[in-house]
## 1
Amino acid sequence: MADKRPAELIDGPGEQKDGAAAGAPSAFLEVRDLKIHFPTDDGLVKSVDGLSFQLERGRTLGIVGESGSGKSVTSLGILGLHNRRNARVSGQIWLDGAELVGASADDVRRLRGRKMAMIFQDPLSAMHPFYTVGHQIIEAYRVHNDVSKQVARKHAIDMLGKVGIPKPQQRVDDFPHQFSGGMRQRAMIAMALSCDPELLIADEPTTALDVTVQAQILDLIRDLQQEFNSAIIMITHDLGVVAELSDDILVMYAGRCAEYAAVEDAFHRPLHPYTWGLLGSMPRLDRERSERLMPIKGTPPSLINVPDGCAFNPRCAYKDLTDGKSIAERPELRELEPGHRAACHIPLEKRREIWNDEIAPKL
Amino acid sequence: MTGTGGNDGGNGIVSTSKNAAGADEPGTVTGGAPVVTTVKEPRPARDGEPLLEVENLGKHFPVTAGLLRRQVAAVKAVDGVSFSVRKGETLGLVGESGCGKSTTGRMIMRLLDPSFGKIKFEGQDITGLSQGRLRPLRRDFQMIFQDPYSSLNPRKTVGSIVGAPFRLQSIETEQGVKKAVQELLELVGLNPEHYNRYPHEFSGGQRQRIGIARTLALRPKLIVADEPVSALDVSVQAQVVNLMEDLQDELDLTYVVIAHDLSVVRHISDRVAVMYLGKIVEIADRADLYERPMHPYTNALLSAVPVPDPSLRGDRTRIRLQGDVPSPLDPPPACRFHTRCWKAQDICKQVEPPLVELSPGHQAACHFPENASVSATDEVAKAAVAPAAASAEDGTPGG
C-alpha cells in the first residue's frame, strides 16, 4: 500500500548522509538520532526527538519513563510499525548491519517477526479473539518459514511448553479468552519467540499482571534470554523491573534521553535530576519506610509544546544552579564517566554533591 | 452541625492549603508545616474506639442459567471477612486481582449489598438500612475512585462536580457553594480559578485531586480509596500519596486504602490486611506484617515485588508461586491457598485454618505460620479443631 511513499519521506534529512559516512556500526542494534514526529492539527508532536543508543546480543536495555515520554513510540519505530503517512521518522536504526529507517516496507516486514519481535503490554487486545492461540502462533511461524501446517503446529506446541503452559497439546486449540492473564502473556511471548528473534522488544510486559505472575514472567524472560542469547529492550515505568532485568538503562523524558548508563550507575550514582525525582517518588520495600515521598512537582509536558532549553526545567528543583542555561539552551547528552551519559546543565561536581548529600540519604 | 462545622472547616481549609501546595516541592517536604500536627499526636486513636467494624462480611454473585435464570453457582467474591478500623488510622487492603478487595470496599460504602455479614459504622449497624435512611449517613463515608478519567463527568465543570455533594445533601454553606468549592480546590492543591474548567483540561494527577476534593466536600470521617494512585505516573503518584497523608493529619480522616501495590500500601497504611480469594489471610500492623510476615501467601507476595536496587539482584531469596489464583466460582476447600502453597500438608486440605492472633495485633490464618512462636502455632491447632468439628456437622462450605 504505502510502499512508495516512505522513500520520498525519508531521503529529505541530511542525517542519512552522515550515517552513510559513519557506515554500519559494529553493535548488533544501534539507533542514531532517531526522531519520530507526528504532524497534527494542533502542531507537530515530537514524540521521539533525537534518541541514540546501542545494544548487543545477550544484553538487556531498560527504557524507563512516564507516560508520554516516547518509549512506546520508540519501540514501534524500531519495528517499523508507524504508518509513514502520518509519522515522520528520521535518523538511523541499524540492526545487525542493515539500516531500517530507509529500508522498504517489504524488507522491514521480512525482518519483523523473524529477526525482531515484540511482546505487547496487553495480550488480550494484542491477540485476535476469533482465532485460537495455536492458529496465531502457527500463522506467525509459517509467514517466515516454509513448513507444513503439521510441522508448524508441532512447533507451536513446543513453544507453548517452553513458556510454561501446562498441557500445551490441549491448550494450543484454546482461544485467548480461555487463558488467564498470566498465561495469555506467556502465549504472547511464545508467539514472539516462535521464529527465534535476535531482538526482542517487551513493551510493559508485566504492567497488566499481578505481582506473583509478574515475577513468573520476568523469570521466564530471563531464562529465555539465556537460552536464545537474544538482545532485549525492556520498556517499562517500573524501576523495580528494570533493576531486576536490565544491564543498561535509558531514562527518557519528553522524547529525549535524560540519562543513559549501566544499571548500577543509574541507581547508585544517577546524574540527572529527573532520575533523582523518579527514585525519590517511589515507596520502596527494600529500605526503611520513609516518612515522606519526594515527588517531582508538576506534570510531564505536552509533546507539542516541549519547554525550551532543558525539557525538564519547569519541574527541576535545581534549575537555579545553571545560570539560566537550562531555560535557554538544550543540554547535550554528554559522556561524563565511562559509559555514563546525562543531559544536564548543572555542573557535574555540584550534581554529585547533591546526590550524595541531599538525595541518596533520603531514599 | 452544618453551620458551625462548615465555618470551622473553612478555617481549616485555609491553613491546610499551604501545606497541600507545599507538598509538591521536594525541598520543603521533610520540614514542612504538616508535620506539626503529626508530632503533636501521631496516631492518637490507635487504641481508640473503632470507627468501622466489619463482621463476617460476604458477597456471593449468583451465576444463573437457563430460561428461568435459576442460580447454578455463585462467585464467592468475598467470603466472610472481619476487621475493624479505628478512628484516625489507615487500613491497607492488599491482594491480587480477583481477591475481593474492591468488592469489600464497595460493600463498606453500601454501593453493593452484602450477601451476609454486618457492617457497623460508629457503632450503628448500617447493613440493612434502606438507601433513604442511608443517605444522611453517607456524608460521613466517602470514596476515592481508581480511574480519574471515568469517575468525573466530562460534561460538568469542576465547580459543579465538586459542588455536587452539597446539592445532593442540601447543605447550606456559609458563603455559598462556590466559595466552599474553591476552598476545597485550594485544599487539594489546585488553582481555585479553575472552577469553570472541564475535566479534560486537567492531567491525570490533577483529575485525581478533583476527585479527592469532591470526596472531602462533606468532611467525611471515613474514606475508602480504591486504588487511588495506580492509574498515575510515578512522580504524580507520590504527589497524591503525600496529599492524602497531609489531609489525613489535617482533617483527622480515617482511610481504608485498597491497592495492589505493596510498597504504596506499606507507605500509607498503619495496619495492613492481605486478602486471598475472598478471605483475609493475614492482618497486622504495618511494620509487623512487612518485617515478620506469617502467612506463606504474604511471604510470597512480598518476595515477588521487584526491588529497585540492582545490587540486590540475585541476593534475595524468592518464593515463586506456581500457576494462577483458582477461580472464586469453586475455591479450593479448607485453606484456599493450599493448591499453591509449598508448606501445604494434608491438614491444609481438610481443615480451614481460622484467622487467629498469633502475636499481639498480628492475626494470620495458617496451620504452619512463619515467624511465629511454637505456642502460637499450638494456638492455631486448638482453634482449628473447634470450627472443624462445627463445619463437619453442617457440611463444609463449598463442598
## 2
Amino acid sequence: MTTLHRAAGERFTLHLTLNGQRRSGEAEPRMLLCDFLRHELQAFGVHVGCEHGVCGACTVLLDGRAVRSCTQYAAQADGADIVTVEGLAEPGTLNEVQRAFAKHHALQCGFCTPGILCSVTHFLRDTPAPDEQQVRDMLSGHICRCTGYAPIVAAVLEAATAIRKGS
Amino acid sequence: MLEAIGNVSQRWVGSPVERKEDQALLTGQARFIDDLSPIPGIRFAAILRSPHPHARIGRIDLARARDLPGVRGIVTGKDVSDLIGPVPSVVKAPLAYYPIAIDRVRYVGEPVAVVIADTRYIAEDACDLIGVEYEVLPAASDLRSATARDAPVIHERVGSNIISRRSFSYGNPDAAFAVADRVFEFSYSYPRYASTPMETFGVIAQFERAPDRYTVWSNFQGPFVVQPLMASALRVPGHRLRLITPPSSGGSFGIKQAVFSYIVLLAAVSRKTGVPVKWIEDRAEHLTASSASSDRVGTVAAAFTKDGELTGLRFRNTANMGAHVRPPEPASLYRMHAASNGCYKVQNISIDNELVVTNCTPVGLNRGYGGPQFYFALERIMDIAARGLAMDPAELRRRNFISVDAFPYRAPAGAIFDAGDYDAALSELLRIADYDELKRRRDEVRRKGGLFGIGLAAGVEPSGSNMAYVSLAQTAQDRRRADRKSGANASAVVSVDPSGQVTLRLCSTPNGQGHATVAAQIVADALGLHPNDVDVVTEIDTLTSAWSIASGNYSNRFAAIVVDAIAKCAEQVAQKIKLLASDALDAAPEEIELREGYARVRGQSNKGLPFRKAAARAHWDPAGLPDDATPGIHEAAVVSPPVLGAPDDEDRIASAVTFGFVIDLVAVEIDRSTGAIRIDKYVSVHDVGTQLNPKIVEGQVHGGFAHGLGAALFEELVYDERGNFLSGTFADYLCPTAVEVPPVEIGHVETASPVNALGAKGMGDGSSMLTPAVIANAVADALGRDDISLPLNLRRVWALANGHDVRRRPVAAQVRAEGTAVGAGALTGSGEISLSAPVEEVWRRLLDPSELAAIIPGCRGLTQEGPDRYSAEVVIGVAGIRGALGFGSGSGFLSLRPEVGGRTHLQYCYEADIGGKVAAVGQRMLGSVTRYLIAQFFHSLERRLRPMGGSGWRSWWSKLRRYGRNGGEP
C-alpha cells in the first residue's frame, strides 16, 4: 500500500468498483473511506454518525464484508469491490430486507439505516437462519436512536425467512 | 371544526399504512444537510473550541494557521462582535449569550474561532495551528459547586450564578401540609444526558449583497420563534434571514433546536469571509458542546391523609442551565409547570424554581423536555408514600387519579387536560403485566434471598405547547410590560396542479417521525384519494413557506395541532372540488362525495367525474367556473387552539393543547454480585386519543422507551470536578444497543381529544418521561432504599446493592500516594526505578531544564515559570488522537535513596489533571497513557545517566512494561 506513504496534501488516484461500476477518484493519503465515497464518488447513502467506529452508520460492504468506512482510509480500498446502500437492490426496487424494514417500521429518521442494511446483508449471508439473540448481537454494532430496535429485529427475522423461501 | 369536516371518510386515518418516507431512506436516495451543495463555491468550516471550562481569552495568534495553503479565512469572536449581538432571552439577568466566545470561555467546547478552508481536513489542520493564550479561571462544574458560597462567578455582570428565582403557590399548600396526616419528602438529583441524534448539526450559510441577506440551509427543527431571535442577533429584519431545511433530518429529539446558535455564527462568518460556508458538526463536538437535557436537583414533599389522599405537593427545583441561558431556556423548567399535579387531583401545590449557570454546555430541548426530571420527583415520591402508607402503589395512584367524568379538567396551575380515563389505563396495565403474579414472583425471589422489585409511574403527556408558557419565568408584572403572547400556530397549504396532482406543504420539520405519511392519510381521506396520490413537502423555506413562530417539531405538536390545520385545509380543497364538479354532474355541491379518485353524486355510483378533471377546470377554464369558484387551487389553513390563552396574573396557563396519558410498570431483578439489572417485564399503556397510524404510534412508543431506558441505565454527560468534560465519544457516552433494550408490552386506552378534528393527542415523548422514574422505583423496591440516582449503571447499582458509598464522580485511577493530597478526578499513580548514578547526580539532572526538556516524552519546548514550576508544550498521541488538543497540569513527589554501587533508588508518585478534547475523547485511555509516559520519563533519565553501551531496546521495552504494571492501577 505505497499510497499510504505519500505526503499529506498530495493526492493520488484510486480505482475501485462501486455498486458494480468501475469508478475512480482522487484522495489524499489521510482521506477516510467514508469521506471519499461521499464527497468524491457522491455515494451519499453512506452516512457518517460518529467517525470513531462505534455507531455503525457508515458501514459498507467491502469485498463482501461489512466494514466501517470511517475507520479506514480511502487508500486501503484501492482495487476493492464496494457495495453501499445504493447498490443493495436494483434501482427503483427494494430487496427482501428493505421491504421487511418498511413493513415493520424498522426505520424512522433513516440515518442509521444504510449501515444497518449493509451489516444485515453480510450477516444473513453467513447466518441464513438466525435466532433473535443472534440478530440482536449483530445489531449491537449499530446505534439507532429512533426505533428502540424491536422493529428492526422483527424485520431482520422476517427477511431471513423470506430469503430462505425465495432461494 | 368537527362539523366542518363531518363528511371526511376515515378510511386511511387509523390504518397502519407503510411510510411514504421509507423508499428513499432505504435506498440511500434521501437527502440530508451534508449531502447538499445548493450553491457554488462553498468552503468548509472547522471550529476551534475552548479546552478550558473557564478562562479569559488573551492573545490569539493566527499567523501560522493563516499561512496554511487552502485556508480562506479565520474568524474569532472579536472579529464578528460587530455583526452579532446577544441573543434575546426572557431571563432579564444581564447574561448576554453569544454563539462564540468574545473575551471569556465558560465551558469546554465553547467556540473560540472558525476556520474556513478549501476542505474540512485543511480547516481542522489550521485549527491546530492557532495559538490561544488562556488565563485559566476556577470553574464551577455542577449545581453544588456553582451555588457554594465561594463559587467562581461565571457572569460577572450578574454577580451570582443563581440567575433567577421564582416561587409559585396554587391552592393553599401551607394549610395542606399543616393538617396532613403524613408528609413524605424526597431529595432528588437528575443527571445530564442527551438524546444524541445520529445525524449531527449541519449549516450551510451564505451572505449576499443587494439586498443584504443571509440564506442558511440547516437541519434546524424549530421552534421558529427562534428565527426572529436569530435575525435580531444578526441585526437584520426577519426577512433578511432566510432559513431553508433539507428534505431529510436524521433525528433530533429536541437537540437540533440548538443548531440555531451555529446558524447565527456561520451566517456572520460567511459575511466576514465573503464565501458561502458549510459546517458539519462531528460527534465529539456534538457530545461536548451541542446541547443536553438540564440536570436538576431538588426536593419534593407530598402531604397525605392517612387513607392515602394526596392533599399537597411542594417542589423545590434547581436547574442547571449550563454556561448561558440559550433560548428557549429556561423553558425546560416551565414545560411541566402548569401540570405540576401530574395525573392527580391534588389542588394545593407550591413550586420554588431556581436557575443556575455553571461551566457546562448550555442545555436545551431533549425528548420529554422537563418531563423526565419532573416525573422523577413526582413519581418517586408516590412510590415512597405508598410504602410509607403501607398501600399498594397502584391503588394509591388510582385513589388520586383525576376521574373520567372530570374532563376537560382545569389543573391548579392552569393546564386544561382535554380527555382521559386514567383508571381504565391502570387496569389495562395491571392486566397486561399480570400484576398479582409479578408480586407473587417478587415474594418468591425474595424468599430465596434475591433482589426483585416492581415499579410504577404514571403521568400526563403535554403536547402542542402554548408559546407563552416560558414567560412564567417572568413575574406577572414583567409580563404586563411586555407584548402579550399566547397560542401555537400551525399551518398547512394544499395545492392541486393543472394535471390534478395534490401537493401538501407543511411547516412541521419532521426529523423521522413520519409526518408526510400521516399528513397524506388525512388529505387522502378528505379528497377520496390514495395516500400515494398526495405528495407532501416538509422542507421549510422561510421566504416561501406559510410558517409562523410555532412552526417546527417539538412537544409532540404534530398530532395535537398540525393535523388540525391539515384536515381543515384538505376540507377546503374538498369543498372546492365539489363545487367544480357540481356543474358537470348537474348536482348541488352538498350532494357530491369524493371517493376512489372520483367526484360522485351520493347514491349514484354511475355518475362521476375524475378528481383530476374536476381540479383541472380551476386552472384551464377559469371563465367557465361556477360563480362561487375562484381560479386555481391553493388552499391554506392556519390554526391555533383557542384554549391556549396568555398566562393570567396568578401564573396559571393552559400550557399545552392535548394531554395524553402514559402509565408504565417494570419488574427488575438485580444481580447483587455484579450490579446488573435484568428487566423481567416492562409494560407501557398509552392514551394518545385516536391513533392516526398505529404503526407509527407503536414506533414512537418503542423509541421513547429506549431513550428513557438509556437515561435510566447508561447515559450521562460527565464533567469532573474541575469542569473537564469526559464523555466525548460513543465509547464513553453509552447509548443502548439492541442487546440492552428489552421487549416492551404495549397497551392502549383511547379517549378521543375534543380539541382537534381527528381526536388525536400528541404523542412521542411518552415513556422517555416515565421510564427513568419507573426503573428507579423498581430498583428502590428491590433494594429497599430510596437514595436512588441515575444512571443506574453497574458501578452504582453494585454499590447500592452492597451498601457501599456511591461516588458521583468517576476517577480514572484511584491509588493515593502517601503524604499527598489528591484532588478528586485527578489521575494518580506511583512507581519506582533503580538509576545508574548517585543521588546527587540524579538530583542535578532533575533540576536542569535542558535535561528535563530532553527526557520529557514528546517535549517541544520547556520554560521555567518559577522555582520547581515548568510549563512544557508536549505532543503525544492518545488513542489515535494527535495535535494540540488539550492541556494538562500535574505535580509529582520523588524520594531518592542511595543504593550500593553508586546507584539511586527513586520512588515517585504523581497527580495529573488533564483537560480539553483529549480528556473528552481519550478518557478511558488516560490512566494507562499517563502511567506509560511517566515511566518513559524515568527510563529516559536512566538512559542518559547510564554509561554508553547499555542494554538494547528490547530490555528497555521489558523494563517499561514492568514500570507500567507497577504503575498504580488498583
